[in-house]
Amino acid sequence: MVIFVSADWVAERIDSPDLLLLNPRRPMKYLQGHLKYAVNLPLFRAFDAQGTLLAPETLASWIGAAGLGDQRTPVLYDSPEGQNGAMLAWILEYLGRTDVHLLNVFFERWAAEQREVFYKPVQAAATTFTPRVNAQIRVTLDDLRAGPPVKLIDFRSQEEYSGARDLDG
Which of 86, 117, 80, 68 is nearest to 24 (CA)? Predict the structure, then answer.
């Protein structure tokens, strides 16, 4: 389960080597400002060209290359859209992490509160991320077809649903 944390909680622990701040926004947004020590882990790279989630081993390599190993606690944050942070939190939980923390305010609020913002990219020290897949939190199209009838609810806007607007805006 994701643990929501306040800006003060993050600010008090931001220098801790036990935490890894992960920014799942696109690289250009990341370069327009990010939290101290935050590593860019752009969410779109978790999917192939057809929009399919990558295999757990591939995701683990991608996450490990960003510096998140088994010994550090991930702390995520996002912009007001929130989709990237939410999806990265789900991916980490799908891969077995039970210690995912999510900042309860958006980056823009962090900056508006005059908290430190950085602009230079943070180079991650690659490490090994061990996936422990929690298959119970993922449903595939085959699962849906084989199971009882269900209704899917799509929370995207009409523009996102129709393809007129990209989810990453």
Answer: 86
